[in-house]
Amino acid sequence: MKKFLVISYDGDQQQWFYDVVIAADEGQAKASILEVRSYCQDADCFSAADFLKVARSLQVKTEEQIERDFQTLIAEHK
Predict the structure, then answer these.
(1) Which domain holds residue 9?
(2) First CA to last CA across the chain, in angstroms?
C-alpha cells in the first residue's frame, strides 16, 4: 500500500479538494475519493514519492527558471 495525494474537483461548486489516502495504486486512490466525493467530476493523484520530487524541484528552481518554463508553456499553447 502507498500514500497518495488525491486532488478532486467539484465543477458545480467550483471547489478543489485535497485528500490523502492509502491505496494499492493510483486507480484505487482516485476511485476511493470519487466514491466518497460523488459530487466531484474527476480526480488526479500523486504518490508521496512523486509529490516530494515535484516539491524538491520547485524548491531548487530559481524564479527565472520558473518564469522561463511558464513562457515556454504559453508559447506551446498558442
Answers:
(1) 2-76
(2) 41
